[in-house]
Design a protein that fits this description.
The protein is α/β, with parallel strands linked by helices and 605 residues long. Helices cover 41% and strands 15% of the residues. The strands form 4 sheets. Strands 8-7-9-10-12-11-17 form a 7-stranded mixed sheet, with helices on both faces. It has a 5-stranded parallel sheet with strand order 1-2-3-5-4, sandwiched between helices. A 5-stranded mixed sheet has the order 14-16-15-18-19, with helices on both faces. Helix 4 (49-58) crosses helix 5, helix 4 packs across helix 12 and helix 16 (357-369) packs parallel to helix 18 (387-395). The radius of gyration is 27 Å and the shape is globular. The chain binds thiamine diphosphate (TPP).
Length: 605
């Protein structure tokens, strides 16, 4: 069955169950072809084809809500809900998003991109249905990786107590992006591999196959079987104890079996957790054998770049060799943040805490308090989770945690949920925090060298890549660096990071400019600013961050407090969410371009 023949869930429901395996094969092929071209989340999506087909076969969306956690595994859902053709434009500017977006389709129940939110969303929908009298079902699809996130436990706690009919599908592939971590992961493994359990499950299956499937037949049998099993095998029954009925584990690639289960569970009036086992990358050998590196793949023709993350990984690997205090911490992002090499070179000094950014920040604070030198490598967008912990646990007591903030600024194809454009605004107001931005790999190395001797909270923020290394002055606390000076020019462009600096330097080819590397964003170089705050001078700040609360506004506030003599403009992102899928158009639209810089200068002259 060709995926093109199924453009809505109602068309799917008209198919025979024995046509569904063919449909799954066609969807899988479509996903592989498009993701290989456009980039995207390959292995997670290949693992959830049968699950998604089964869910749409049973549930009635959009009235029923299917809430995908993270949402990176929603490609089959998109294909089945009218976007099979549009799937060609996956993650492209103007094309469909790689994550669920209600603005894109009424079938996308809720915006997602960050992990571990689905259970709270599902409970919210269930309560809303109760309040409004709507007769609809709610399903949350959450991976074992996302189940390492603290929010998931806050929601489980509430789901168990509220007793509303929320169905949780736990898609267990034993992987986050890397191998999953933690005690919960071990618990799931115990559920999964119990041979006795599997044996018992087969017996139940056999029994089911010889009785007619009336009413709650399977459910009844499963309940009966479960009671037996509990006595025999499962000494541990966490979900049940919390008031959430547990069913499974089931084969997540058996579409017929999944349909049977969902049809039964849908009738339940209380919370249920359906535990399914899937292979990440199912159906594509290279993705199954290396699900980690095929979790997210780049588009064909994507420029190979100088990655800041590689510099971080190399630096920390060497530093830990020489300095026994150094530890590296990641919240499930070892590959993306460049720590893969470190993790094998110094396994005892490396911690992957799972998708647990809040925990990671506080954990690092205590590591620092206990005499360790922790480096928390984290994407800007995910560190948003840890704001309170940075304030409360790190900065009040001045613990020397170094935050290596990757993917800062606009990020391209992942789109609106992943933009790293808020970190300066949430870090700069926090007392005791120092914030630095390197413009290239050599400068990042110098900043990290500086961090080894720095005994207070420090954030070093940088995007994915840089263009070229330039010669630099040594790092001096709170001091900026002149990059291009022109004694005849009255215009100073204060740049945060390499993206801004590259733009200013190209503009300096057309116009006499002083280009400054504002490498310390906090504290900033007040001596430098006092020196250029003169009548007739123009000061322009440029940063890949939102304007509100960012570098430019801090500079403006300072100049104002001193009596503003110069003319001033700030170039930064405006007060709106950015959903462009490529970096250059995102920067251009916000005025981070040579053309706009020259225009702004002209308007002030
Ligand atoms: C708060 C947060 N931190 C990190 C990430 C990056 N991330 C995206 S998917 C993923 C792994 C999710 O694993 P799992 O839920 O098991 O899904 P799978 O891809 O294995 O199907 C991670 C760490 C994120 N999206 N949100």
């Amino acid at each position: 069955m060709d995926y093109e023949k199924v453009t809505t869930p109602s068309e799917l429901k008209r198919l025979n169950i024995n046509e569904l395996d063919g449909l799954c094969a066609s969807i899988r092929e479509r996903i592989i072809n498009v993701v290989e071209k456009n980039g995207g989340h390959l292995s997670s999506n290949l693992g959830t084809v049968e699950l998604t087909v089964a869910l749409h076969y049973v549930y009635d969306c959009p009235k029923d809500k299917i809430v995908f956690d993270v949402g990176h595994q929603s490609y089959t859902h998109k294909i089945l809900t009218g976007r099979g053709k549009a799937f060609d434009g996956l993650r492209q500017n103007g094309g469909i998003s790689g994550f669920p977006q209600p603005v894109e389709s009424e079938y996308d129940a809720f915006t997602a991109g960050h992990a571990s939110t689905s259970l709270s969303v599902a409970l919210g929908f269930a309560e809303a249905a109760k309040q409004t009298g709507e007769n609809s079902s709610v399903v949350a699809v959450i991976g074992d990786g996302a189940l390492t996130g603290g929010m998931a436990y806050e929601a489980l706690n509430a789901i168990g107590s509220e007793q509303l009919p929320v169905t949780i599908v736990l898609n267990d592939n034993n992987m986050s992006i890397s191998k999953n971590v933690g005690a919960m992961s071990k618990y799931l493994t115990r559920l999964r591999v119990s041979k006795k359990y599997v044996g018992m499950k087969n017996e139940i299956k056999r029994a089911v196959s010889i009785i007619p499937l009336f009413g709650d037949g399977i459910l009844h049998l499963m309940e009966k079987g479960k009671k037996l099993l509990k006595r025999i095998v499962l000494s541990n029954k966490m979900f049940e104890e919390m008031g959430i009925s547990y069913y499974g584990p089931f084969d997540g690639h058996n579409v017929g079996e999944l349909i049977d289960i969902f049809e039964q569970v849908r009738k339940k009036k209380s919370p249920a957790l359906v535990h399914i086992i899937t292979d990440k990358g199912h159906g594509l050998k290279s993705a199954v054998t290396d699900p980690e590196h095929s979790h997210g793949i780049s588009s064909v023709g994507a420029m190979s770049s100088n990655d800041f993350s590689a510099v971080l990984g190399e630096f920390l690997t060497d530093a830990a060799q020489k300095d026994n205090r150094v530890m590296a911490v990641t919240a499930a992002m070892a590959i993306g943040t460049g720590l893969e090499k470190f993790s094998t070179a110094h396994p005892a000094k490396f911690k992957d805490v799972g998708i647990a950014e809040e925990h990671a920040v506080t954990y690092c604070a205590a590591l620092a308090a206990g005499g360790v030198k922790p480096y928390f490598a984290v994407y800007s967008t995910f560190l948003q989770r840890g704001f309170d912990q940075i304030v409360h646990d790190v900065c009040i007591s001045k613990h020397a945690v170094t935050f290596c903030i990757d993917r800062a600024g606009v990020v391209g194809a992942d789109g609106v949920t992943h933009q790293g454009v808020f970190d300066l605004s949430y870090l700069l107001p926090i007392p005791n925090m120092t914030v630095m931005c390197p413009t290239d790999g050599d400068e990042l190395r110098a900043m990290l060298e500086f961090s080894l001797t720095f005994d207070a909270p420090l954030a070093v923020r940088y995007p994915k890549s840089y263009v070229v290394n330039r010669p630099h002055n040594p790092i001096v606390y709170g001091k900026w660096e002149d990059v291009a000076t022109d004694k005849n020019s009255l215009t100073y462009v204060l740049c945060v990071g390499g993206r801004a600096l590259d733009i200013a330097l190209t503009a300096a080819g057309d116009k006499k400019l002083n280009v400054v590397n504002a490498r310390f964003v906090k504290p900033f170089d007040t001596e430098y600013l006092d020196g250029i705050n003169k009548r007739g001078n123009i000061i322009i700040t440029m940063e890949d961050n939102v304007r509100a609360g960012g570098f430019g506004m801090s500079v403006l506030q300072y100049l104002n407090s001193k009596g503003m003599l110069c003319k001033f403009a700030s170039i930064a992102h405006d007060d709106k969410f950015i959903d462009n899928r490529d970096i250059s158009s995102s920067l251009f639209d916000s005025g981070l371009s040579r053309e706009n810089l020259l225009n702004v200068i002209k308007s002030l002259e």
